[in-house]
Amino acid sequence: MNEQSETQRAEKCSGCGIKLQTEHKDQPGYLPEVALDRDPVICQRCFRIKNYNEASSVSVNQDEFLRLLSGVGEKNALVIHIVDIFDFEGSLISGLQRFVGNNPVILAVNKCDLLPKVTNWNKLRNWMQQRCKEEGLRTAEIVLCSAKRNQGFDRLLEAVTELRGERDVYVVGATNVGKSTLINRLISDYSDLEQELTTSRYPGTTLDTVKIPLDDGHYIIDTPGIVYPWRYSELVERQDLDAVMPANPLKPAVYQLNEGQTLFFGGLGRFDFVQGPHQSFTCFISGTLKIHRTKLERADSLYEDHRGEMLSPPGSDRMDKLPPWQRHEFRINKGSRSDLYISGLGWIKVNGIEGAVVAIHVPRGVKVLTRPSMI
Q1: Which segments constitute the CP-type G domain (predicted)?
Q2: How far is 150 from 127, CA to CA, in rounded Å?
Q3: Between residues 83 and 219, the one the model is more confident about
Q4: CATH of domain 2-227
């Protein structure tokens, strides 16, 4: 009987109302089993916010997230959408505009410290505005920042102050884009944590957001991170994340290629120069992945013979867990300056203006596309 009452008492977090679970640390409602005896019983995310002024990441899939956002358009809200500059298209929330309505959106572009210092930042903002426009997303402000180096956050806080007014602040983003760092900065600047955490429930949803009280009676609404399965960072084993996601500024690698040559990016991707005049290609890939050049006619056999060894993430023996590769062919028109983008792995800039036929090989399901050159 006592065991039954304890189970009932611990079914939901008393901080945010989420259903509690003890198995998956990166999902909503997690707490260690030893914490079930606490009074009150709160999930790890609420515990860290309340006791350490720190938010921790939890994740949901896209459908759950969009259900969670339903109704935000009818509220008086400011939305901060955090994206990863290294994986811009992969971390941009498609369809966000129809949920936020006329509420202002700040696009916080994180990890800008990864780009070369010679980057033209004004041109980069214009590039992002155009990409957002193509996705149907209207932005009130685009702020370039780096959570790792604490750059750009003062400007972001200024933008929040300018646009917030009497609004609650919703923070949204995919996993591994730096959302927790931003939440923690907002908490330290705006929040009065002497108040109790409350819950924000939307009709028809099974997940609850966490509302962090602000000094003026409004809230920061911390939403779960979205898991996008087309990002390479969601496919690899956690111990291989460091090989895929760069931690240091990118060092562009320029290759002069003839028709019929191939580049392997470790064992995680392959670029074929199928047809076209001799020209250069610049690879913006994590420096921990070795790039191996070979002839296109030898590429298939080389991969079969050396995958998981020479062609692998550093120290990886887990290649067989990835989905089989899929080939994507693209024709680059004359005069166009294009990137071949691989979600979560980086991009290859086509430097020549004579046109080319190229192909990308990556695990099935990874998003691959062409876009106007970012840099």
Answers
A1: 66-229
A2: 23
A3: 83
A4: 3.40.50.300
